[in-house]
Design a protein that fits this description.
This protein is mostly helical. It has 14 helices and 16 strands. A hairpin with a 2-residue loop joins strand 8 and strand 9. The longest helix is centred in the N-terminal third of the chain and has 20 residues.
Length: 437
């Protein structure tokens, strides 16, 4: 079953869009937050070894489950490899470009091989992949680039791709080929076009129906989209677009934070690249907001122990993922989706910088106490249910992607440091009103 596109689920009017394919906070409660300043606190040797094992395994997904000629990465694959599907996701490819940079700097593979894959990916994106005013289709065939599943031109999936493109540009800043290709891909994107006459971005566009009527107008993972647009040197969006989406607050137990009506990943994705730790805008410090969101999510899972006895202080985490009954947009608070005791490793892994002690205890528990159910060639399976014994056969590109990037940020801050060195992103955050927290 193909992954559904959860990056569109924002609640309200946005829920009417068909699914394609598969300031103000309180810090009460348990958990230890990631630090601000210039870098994360150093992990213990054992924790570092666990995260390195996870990153090495995840990199193999991004290397093996991609076309060597186009660089496009599968939306999902069998967790043990030998997958024959050819459906690629532009978001998975964005995560892959960063995974390649991590692998190069860590020596997971020969640097010449890694850079050759980066160049192949960028050349294909610039010269062959179908696009509309610089924006890419969500799904395509990984070998031909042909649009798949009648998928939409997706601003959020393109944004994830662009973050990967700009990370690669900065990491290979001494290579004129990488810099030239990446710069052209970014500078080709017409951000005002996707605004479609408004100040909030359209949810999507298709050649059959034009722009979706719903917009990215409620806080979610799309902060990257707005900042990429504000920072564009060729087709910029107005800086005032940063005020175009609402920032509703939720109070759960003693936690109050900004959130949309969506799973935990909305508090993770933009943070994989944008380093919000020591910065705030007119509304909040978004890193601290995600700390509180993760604390609230842990407390929410523990509140379900009477229903699902597997949930505990060392086993929690639900975000958009596979289930025994197909892909689900589940999580909380408030409760959403048919929660059944399933555990999603990417929930904890994607929040590693926010609550490192808490999240590492979950990952360590899954890795060493549920290994037969949860660990495969490409690392953690997408999801497992200890109560029923169900284990997913697949991994999903965006879930292993956020896991790898956030593990590296917690270990060294590499992705933050590399991406934030792009001058366009510094300019965008300045224009959006960010200043020292």
């Amino acid at each position: 079953m193909t992954r559904r596109h959860l990056l569109k689920i924002l609640g309200g009017a946005a829920t009417s869009i068909p699914l394609l394919g598969s300031g103000m906070f309180s810090c009460g409660g348990g958990g230890s937050a990631g630090g601000g300043g210039t870098g994360p606190p150093p992990p213990t040797v054992a924790d570092d070894e666990l995260m390195d094992e996870m990153e090495r395994a995840t990199f193999q997904f991004f290397w093996n489950e991609a076309s060597s000629s186009t660089g496009q990465v599968k939306d999902r694959a069998l967790a043990n490899g030998n997958d024959t599907r050819t459906l690629s996701s532009i978001a998975a490819t964005g995560f892959a470009l960063v995974a390649l940079c991590i692998a190069d700097q860590r020596g997971y593979r020969l640097s010449t091989d890694v850079k050759a894959r980066v160049l192949a990916t960028l050349r294909f994106l610039l010269n062959q992949a179908p696009e509309q005013n610089g924006w890419f289709y969500h799904y395509m065939d990984m070998n031909s680039g042909q649009r798949a599943l009648q998928s939409e031109v997706s601003p959020i999936d393109t944004s994830i791709l662009l973050c990967g493109v700009l990370t690669a540009r900065q990491f290979y800043s001494q290579d004129p080929q990488v810099v030239g290709l990446a710069t052209q891909i970014y500078q080709r994107v017409d951000f005002p076009w996707m605004l479609n006459g408004g100040m909030a971005y359209a949810l999507a566009w298709t050649p059959e129906n034009g722009f979706a009527t719903s917009r990215w107008s409620v806080y979610a993972e799309m902060m990257m989209l707005y900042l990429l647009g504000i920072g564009s040197p060729t087709h910029p969006a107005p800086a005032a677009t940063w005020q175009a989406f609402t920032r509703p607050t939720l109070t759960y137990q003693n936690f109050t934070y900004i959130t949309g009506n969506a799973p935990l990943f909305i508090h993770q994705y933009s943070h994989a690249w944008f380093d919000f730790r020591s910065l705030k805008d007119a509304y909040t410090n978004y890193f601290q907001n995600s700390v509180v969101a993760t604390q609230a999510h842990k407390a929410f899972c523990l509140s379900l122990q009477n229903q699902f006895s597997d949930y505990s202080a060392n086993l929690w985490g639900i975000t958009a993922s596979d289930s025994a009954n197909g892909y689900q947009a589940w999580g909380g608070p408030p409760a959403m989706g048919p929660i059944d005791g399933t555990i999603v490793p990417a929930a904890a892994a994607g929040s590693l910088p926010f609550l490192p002690v808490d999240c590492l205890s979950v990952l360590r528990n899954i890795r060493f106490n549920y290994a037969s159910q949860a660990w495969r060639k490409y690392g953690f399976v997408d999801a497992l249910n200890p109560l029923t014994g169900w284990s997913d056969a697949d991994v999903i590109g965006i879930n292993v992607g956020i896991s790898m990037l956030m593990a590296e940020n917690q270990r060294t801050g590499f992705v933050w440091r590399t991406f934030m060195a792009n001058p366009e992103m510094q300019a965008a955050m300045n224009a959006a009103g960010f200043h020292a927290a």
